[in-house]
Write a structure and sequence with these properties.
It comes from Mycolicibacterium anyangense. With 71 residues, the chain is α+β, with helices and mostly antiparallel strands. It has two helices and four strands; from the N terminus they run E-H-E-E-H-E. Strands 2-3-1-4 form a four-stranded antiparallel sheet.
Length: 71
């Protein structure tokens, strides 16, 4: 069963950031979809076969730039 989780992420400023973050999260094994609403912080919705931890999302974003998951 696919579930949707929402994460607040700081550091996204443009559509290029959205593409980078989406690709990084879509590369995670359980993820089937990503949607991003730009803002400060941005809202990232992830559809996945299993729940992701904040640490998993942050680890995927750490390799892509100055993006931070916030509580």
């Amino acid at each position: 069963m696919v579930s949707e989780q929402t994460f607040k992420v700081e550091g996204l400023h443009c559509q290029s950031c959205v593409r980078v973050v989406s690709a990084a999260l879509e590369a995670l094994p359980a993820v089937s979809g990503v949607a991003v609403d730009l803002g400060e912080p941005s809202i990232v919705r992830v559809q996945a076969d299993s729940d992701l931890s904040v640490a998993q999302v942050q680890a995927a974003l750490d390799e892509e730039g100055e993006y931070s998951v916030v509580a």
